[in-house]
Amino acid sequence: MPQVSPRGTYLQVSEALRQQIEADDTGALPSEAALMNTHGVSRNTVRRALKALEAEGMVQSAPGIGWRVVRGGDRRSLAERMTDLIAEDSLTVGDAYPSEAKLCERFGVSRTAVRRVLAQMEGNGLLATVHGKGRTVCALPTSTVRP
Question: What's the pTM?
Answer without folding.
Answer: 0.55
